[in-house]
Design goal:
The chain is mainly α and 203 residues long. The chain has 6 helices and 3 strands. It has 2 domains: 80 residues; 115 residues, Arc Repressor Mutant, subunit A. GO terms for molecular function: hydrolase activity.
């Protein structure tokens, strides 16, 4: 009888412990699921937070780069503003002389001719006005023979504007001539700064 009771008790313990063990397993499983679900929104939230930060960093770097380029451009412009102010009619007059003197020259040669004219305006050796410089006797062949009145090209206008802005490919030259046609020996006594196209430039 005692053995039977013990057997029943044992069976009861087994029957009791099995559901209890099962509940533990289920509870542990639910805990794992809850933990996974709680981590997933955090991960998504972290991703969503990181992306705007990345864009913000990229935007900041872009703004800094643009500001750097703007400052560099301003520095160039400040360096170039040294030729005074010409009205629109004077810009066209300068372009006409460039067109006459350097009609077949490369664009750099056109700017160079404009630079020489403007350099003369700033030199004490020449008149300080555009009209005064170009109207000097035999100063520019195209003015003497009226070649400067030929149809004006867009390149000559742009070259005049670039020269006014401060572009001087001649390094401060006051004279230029074509060695193939120049008859004055005096010009060769001037310090030569370089040659562009068919023109030699000198101070």
């Amino acid at each position: 009888m005692l053995k039977k009771i013990i057997k029943l008790v044992k069976e009861q313990k087994i029957n009791i412990s099995v559901p209890h063990f099962t509940r533990k397993v289920i509870a542990a499983g639910l805990a794992v699921v809850v933990l996974i679900l709680s981590v997933m929104p955090i991960t998504r939230q972290m991703v969503n937070v990181e992306q705007p930060q990345d864009r913000k960093v990229q935007t900041t770097e872009k703004i800094q780069e643009e500001n750097k380029n703007l400052k560099a451009a301003q520095a160039v412009n400040e360096h170039q503003v040294s030729r005074g102010h010409l009205n629109r009619n004077e810009v066209y007059l300068l372009a006409m002389v460039i067109n006459g003197e350097a009609y077949d020259e490369p664009y750099l040669g056109k700017v160079a001719v404009g630079a020489v004219i403007l350099n003369r305006m700033q030199s004490k050796q020449f008149p300080n006005t555009l009209y005064g410089v170009i109207s000097q006797d035999n100063a520019f062949e195209s003015v003497t023979n009226n070649q400067y009145q030929r149809p004006l090209t867009a390149d000559s206008i742009k070259a005049a504007e670039d020269a006014i802005k401060g572009w001087d490919p001649t390094n401060g030259a006051l004279y230029f001539w074509n060695p193939a046609t120049a008859q004055s020996k005096w010009v060769w006594s001037r310090p030569i700064t370089g040659q562009i196209g068919r023109h030699v430039f000198a101070k």
